[in-house]
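agent: user wants the full assembly modeled, not chains individually. Plan: 1) parse entity lines 2) check alphabet per entity 3) run joint structure prediction 4) return tokens. Steps 1-2 passed, two entities, 1016 residues total. Proceeding.
--- entities ---
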Amino acid sequence: MALSQSKIYLFDGAMGTVLQRKGLKLGKAPVLLNIEEPELITSIHKEYMAAGCDFVTTNTFSVNRHKVAGLPYTVEELVGAGVRVAKEAVRGTDVQVVLDIGPIGELLEPLGTLSFDEAYDLFAEQVKAGVAAGADCILVETMTDLYETKAAVLAAKEHSSLPVFATQSFDANCRTFTGCSLQSMAVTLEGLGVDALGINCSLGPKEILPMAKELLGYTSLPILIQPNAGLPQMDRETGKEHYDVTPDAFADTVLEMVKSGVQLVGGCCGTAPEYIAAVKKRIAGLSPVLRQVERVPVVCTPTKTVVIDHVAVVGERLNPTGKKRLKEALTSGDMDTVLSIGTAQVKAGAEILDVNVGLPSIDERATMLKVMRSLQGIIDTPLQIDSSHVPTLEAALRHYNGIPIVNSVNGTRESIEAVLPLVKKYGACVIGLALDESGISPQAEKRVEVAGKIIKAATEEYGIPKERVIIDCLTLTASTQQKEVFETLKALKAVKERYGVKTTLGVSNVSFGLPNRQLLSETFLNLALFHGLDLPIIDPNASGMMNTIRAFAVLSGRDESCERYVAHFSGMAAPSVSPVAAEGELSLQDIILSGYKEKAGPATAALLKTKEPLEIVDTQLIPALDIVGEGYEKGKLFLPQLISAAQTVQASFEVLKAHLAKNSAGSVSKGTIIVATVKGDIHDIGKNIVKVLLENYGYDIIDLGRDVDPQVVVDAILERGVRLVGLSALMTTTVRSMEETIKLIRKEAPGTTVMVGGAVLTAQYAADIGADYYARDAKEATNIAKKVLA
Amino acid sequence: MLAYTDREVLRYLGYGKNEGDAPTLEKIALCREIIAEKASCHAIYRQFPIDWVEGAPWVAPAVFALEGQSIRNLLKGSSSLFLFAATIGIQVDRAIQYYMKEDLALGVILDACATAAIESYCDVANAQLKEELAAEGLTCTPRFSPGYGDLPITLQGPLTALLQTPAKIGLTVTPTSILIPRKSVTAILGVVPQGAKLPEVGCFSCNKFATCQFRKVGVNCGAFTK
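--- prediction returned ---
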């Protein structure tokens, strides 16, 4: 069945509420009734049908493998039975059976521990069972995590050809519990190709009404709204919830939604057949309101949307080409370096981050997923996935949370046929490079034609909305192709005018091979902005480039009343005198003891003029650390001070390492140590503190992160030939997984020394699970390292 | 709503009874702002009768048993209990992860502030509950969480499922019984007549008693009454 544009559809109301009314025993899983009391469920469906609904929703909310683990039936049996009893109820009518799919109940990575693929599998199992039993369509509902919604929608679409509806549950602040906004949900789910989307649960119709109206402006898809019957009031005596909105009041507000353009309505918690009947009465004879939705280009994460209606900077620094440090970080899996490059760009004003991990020696797909997951765990800036490797693109698009930009497709048939189906399937934006089989044309007009070809293919062949196509007219290098520099600008202008699409350029390419690159890049950026550039791909840490954009925003009238310009530059009054400077020249040791992180670098650089790096380590850093460590052990200094000092030493080490690298003069490393929080555990503060302290004492640390699979630890040991591993677990439940990790290390990497730490551990416990050392705190870990790696 | 003191934050940072140093106090002030911006507080509680089956309290009617000596002690004077869950939301987790990469010291302090914040939020929610109970001449025991004493941490799963915390307040639990958002609390509170002697929930009932870093510096973590 497909939704008709000329009909208002009515869903049913709550199942749980009616079951409770009929005396469902507390703690009993309602889904069991599908098998044990099917007539009861059928009768409830029939009550809703009598009230006039067009859809009945199966009694299968959250029936996934994890949730039903303790029940005597499989997911297939429970879901199958749920669909069959609904089908029994609707037999001989036009009423459709909706397979109900609710949240899993565990949070997905990166903030939780359930992987996206695992979530997908759980949903796929439900979909397969529902389809086999004959469901007519699929409803993914009460979701609060856009990533989980995406997994469910993909599972539904990849295992059925049924219509898929998806709704999320929003809090009074117009966000879901995980922070997802209405707009992010709307554009992401529309991109994934659902048939209708909307809001359910959490709030009553009055609270949802303004959200529904807002949502109507973000997508042209049909909107489905299923409010609760107001807010729950709990009767403490009986433990029963009742809701404060009457059927008539409920129906009045739902009617207002329909009049605003909502096409599918129903009820959630607290609603019963009389609510649906009241709505039916009010919407009888009404037709859907014709909606005009302005389509705008949007990229997003769940918590942040960037509407490309202004010049938005795309940070270019996460690209290993010509960047030794990032290359090393990507090769060794050091995500901290990647994250610090990412966050620095965001702080400098990037609104989107380009991510390219292409290196000859690397598993690009796995690395891209790891980098993306790390970035999405701590920053909410949308990403631009930069790869020419199609399997990498596909995996990244599948696992990205929100709407990314794909960088890129070009005008060759091969590229179009490989990339655009993925862009369509996952609902991304895509950059079209204005080049084809014959390369980059020196003439603007030819590039404009190629751009047109890509736009046509995207929109007509693949059904990608035009606003999701961004054209890159390609910056050429002035030192080698001077004549063609202006052709790029001409093409840019023509593309904007002729096709009305957004444009991007890798700006700094223009200045390769010439002195004072900055001047050329800034000037070119200026011109490109004037010719209509929307998404400059630049280094946002280059203040000249950012200032050029700020100035353009003023001169083009986009920065109204020059507000942002004034705010930025008035905040940059003459730099105040640093409090440290007033205290005279501090020794590096004093700087460390005081935790003046910013001073450590310059002080170290000054010392390097007269001293060898190792001498600085031995005479300045280590003694300072010892003083801090002793103060900490004696209870005179405390954790934040210990960490501040350690971070200051860190800053000093950075300078020493850079100095050594520049002079190819060996290293100050005293050995390599792996640290990880074990599988199933996500407590990583302790591990992070141990890491920084170990680094202070001159060890190189491979930080595998948290929730780390035992095999990943073993692989890292073997690959890098590491002799000492530090494992952290904070829960009695995860110490078991620590034990398993140690067992696997003993089996596959014998000879490795293992130290463990964590709040529930003791020396005895550590010995019992097979560890070599127990580190009761971070200081102790450094002592162990000294002993083991001496 | 989140009224926690610097003193509490310092205690979580291991300062014991010592004064905070100026840089740390400044960072605590900054972290308060971050928490105020990121926290999204939700709580839920629900009352259940207690069935005593062979000396063990069951959440009635026959939902699940509460195992261990410590919960028996807590509930011995109660005929009903509250299951309680509260969280300050996932954006706080994200912020902690961010600052731990950005500035570890700040991240650690933010984590301590967040711990103080959820505890204070629970205190507020529990005080409200007591107020409601007072009208009926009742009050409740201190809250007691899975993982305290010998009350199994694995109770997190059934407890959150019964309260439907994922849908109601956005609180989930991992298969290893870790609550996510991290800064969340689940607990059991016994209902007793006003004026009855409340059971003491002391440090000694905690499974971290032997290794506790708070006790070492002469304070406690704040979770217990003594």
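agent: reporting back. Chain B touches chain A through 63 residues (CB under 8 Å). The beta strands of chain B are 42-53, 56-59, 64-65, 80-87, 138-140, 172-173, 179-180, 184-193.
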